[in-house]
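Re: that backbone. Tokens:
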């Protein structure tokens, strides 16, 4: 009997430890950001950070490659996990590769933060969408979180507009079924279909840096790709997300983590050149490039 009591007690302690949250800024604007423990408090490569165009290194990579992002997803699932709205259940592997990435990364889930977590040139945007990818060489997210090349998150910031965003609208239309506290962690189907690339503006300019998950465990396993191009959203649309409950009769009005120290990390601003015929030739291989180089040289002589 005592033994069972000890187990019950430990389980309680565990569940208490897994509860974490954001400051209630409605109640108190100055409420300190809570300590989440572990790496969240003592890590040196934490996210989010402020991204400056001026302070960034300039980088050149091959173009990012997106596979199946344009495929209409007709049976996506949505869940209110008490910290965000999260989408999953993609019909086929959505694969991201190229750029500075060392491997193929497949989309695991998509979720939102209201206000944005990253700031660009000290500006905070009303919404940030995170498209979370796992390195295909690891079988699952918890394994991937142990390795610095384990996860890539594509971050998309949204700016205020008077024109509703259609892709965001197709998510909002199904929000009612997961908003209440009683529905936490119970998945619902998204009625409208949606292609993931409808959530992503042009990818020709982005910041990339080595950072962490922005929620516990704050694992330092994330290659961040934060696009500088933003998408429009109305404040009315963002306000719909703010109505989801995280406790009985308590709405999640903000779910962004405070900015973290850069700690001398390299933040690279990648400006993709227009894909010219010269770029295409460079993918044909060094041998041919050398030959062409020689030919051009000869021609100039
Ligand atoms: Zn996130």
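Recovered sequence:
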């Amino acid at each position: 009997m005592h033994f069972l009591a000890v187990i019950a007690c430990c389980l309680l302690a565990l569940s208490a430890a897994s509860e974490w949250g954001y400051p209630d800024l409605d109640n108190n604007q100055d409420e300190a950001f809570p300590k989440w423990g572990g790496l969240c408090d003592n890590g040196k490569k934490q996210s989010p950070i402020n991204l400056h165009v001026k302070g960034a290194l300039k980088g050149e990579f091959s173009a990012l490659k997106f596979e199946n992002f344009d495929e209409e997803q007709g049976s996506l699932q949505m869940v209110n996990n008490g910290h965000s709205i999260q989408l999953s259940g993609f019909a086929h592997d959505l694969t991201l590769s190229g750029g500075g990435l060392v491997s193929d990364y497949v989309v695991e889930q998509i979720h939102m933060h209201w206000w944005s977590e990253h700031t660009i040139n000290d500006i905070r945007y009303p919404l940030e969408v995170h498209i979370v990818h796992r390195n295909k060489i690891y079988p699952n997210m918890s394994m991937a979180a142990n390795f610095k090349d384990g996860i890539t998150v594509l971050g998309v910031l949204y700016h205020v507009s008077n024109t509703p965003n259609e892709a965001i609208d197709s998510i909002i239309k199904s929000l009612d079924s997961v908003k209440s506290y009683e529905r936490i962690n119970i998945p619902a189907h998204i009625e409208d279909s949606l292609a993931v690339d409808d959530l992503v503006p042009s990818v020709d300019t982005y910041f990339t840096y080595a950072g962490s998950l922005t929620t516990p465990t704050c694992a330092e396993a994330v290659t961040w790709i934060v696009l500088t191009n933003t998408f429009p959203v109305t404040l009315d649309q963002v306000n719909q997300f703010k109505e989801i409950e995280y406790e009985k009769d308590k709405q999640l009005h903000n779910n962004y983590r405070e900015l973290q120290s850069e700690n001398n990390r390299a933040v690279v601003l990648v400006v993709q050149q227009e894909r010219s015929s010269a770029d295409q030739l460079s993918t044909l291989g060094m041998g041919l490039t050398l030959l062409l180089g020689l030919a051009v040289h000869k021609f100039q002589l």
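The pocket of zinc ion is lined by residues 111, 113, 130, 214 (CB under 6 Å). The domain at 33-253 is CATH 3.10.200.10 (Carbonic Anhydrase II).
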